[in-house]
């Protein structure tokens, strides 16, 4: 028991050590206590009128190369963070998922595996967005699994002032996704009953082998799908996001 406690402490401290580096260019690092978790965010907000662009990270490193759950879901890739830094809008926020960058005391492996879209995860992300926006309009941009997180946030919180929903290489139906790859179902996760009725656009990669285009087109009206040529799941060199409302 003592060894386990020391292991958790060392792991927690190691996770905290990387918190200040992912974003530069005047982004301010803030940890937001939210429900069962502490949510790591990097924020650059200077305008109280225009919408806040909130980018929600993907699933990160949920499993290792052998298919085993990891001890830390913090993403190793920087695709979304790089995209955030290219956003020259006055209000931009990068939001990690629960247990990424900050290993809260309540974190357990279900929170980044079969429960990654659970009610407590969505509640925490919602509380964090409300703390950031304080009633101001927001545009939610969800990458990969962050797409479903953002969709569930909109669906469950009609009082949020979400002016547009944007997804990039997004998982929108986790049952279809796990079935496609013959993976175990995400049994502790919620599903979208239907897509939120807000202005939306879904960017998909021509060569995405993680979230194939066919899965997006199965649930999204074709006029809301934009195929980015030559793109892969984590490489959208030609991506130009349309933020117009």
User: Helix count, per DSSP?
Assistant: 6
The biggest beta sheet, please? 8 strands, mixed
What share of the residues lie within helices? 25-40%
| N- to C-terminal distance | 54 Å
Q: Low-confidence parts lasting 5 or more residues at pLDDT below 50?
A: 1-20
Computed structural class = alpha/beta
Give descriptors for this structure.
alpha/beta; 6 helices; 245 residues; 20% strand; 8 strands; disordered N terminus
Please provide a written account of the structure.
The protein has 245 residues and is α/β, with parallel strands linked by helices. The protein is built from 6 helices and 8 strands. The protein has helices at 2-16, 79-86, 119-133, 145-156, 174-180, 213-219, and strands at 28-34, 37-45, 52-56, 91-95, 138-143, 162-168, 200-205, 225-228. An 8-stranded mixed beta sheet has the order 1-2-4-3-5-6-7-8, with helices on both faces. The termini are far apart. Residues 1-20 have low confidence and may be disordered.
């Amino acid at each position: 028991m003592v060894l386990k406690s020391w292991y958790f402490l060392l792991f927690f401290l190691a996770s905290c050590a990387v918190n200040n580096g992912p974003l530069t260019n005047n982004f301010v690092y803030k940890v937001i206590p939210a429900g069962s978790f502490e949510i790591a965010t990097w924020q650059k907000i200077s305008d109280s009128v225009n919408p806040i662009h909130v980018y929600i990270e993907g699933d990160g490193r949920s499993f290792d190369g052998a298919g085993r759950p990891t001890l830390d879901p913090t993403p190793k890739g920087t695709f979304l963070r790089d995209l955030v830094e290219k956003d020259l809008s006055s209000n931009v926020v990068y939001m990690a998922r629960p247990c990424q960058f900050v290993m809260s005391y309540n974190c357990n492996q279900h929170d980044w595996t079969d429960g990654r879209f659970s009610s407590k995860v969505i509640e925490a992300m919602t509380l964090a967005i409300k703390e950031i926006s304080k009633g101001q309009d927001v545009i939610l941009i969800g990458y990969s699994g962050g797409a479903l997180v953002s969709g569930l946030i909109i669906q469950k919180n009609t009082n949020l002032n979400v002016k547009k929903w944007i997804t990039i290489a997004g998982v929108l139906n986790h049952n279809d996704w796990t079935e496609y790859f013959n993976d175990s179902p995400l049994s502790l996760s919620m599903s979208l009953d239907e897509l939120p009725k807000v202005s939306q656009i879904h960017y998909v990669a021509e060569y995405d082998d993680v979230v194939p285009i066919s899965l997006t087109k199965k649930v999204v009206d074709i006029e809301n799908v934009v195929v980015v040529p030559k793109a892969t799941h984590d490489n959208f060199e030609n991506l130009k996001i349309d933020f117009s409302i």
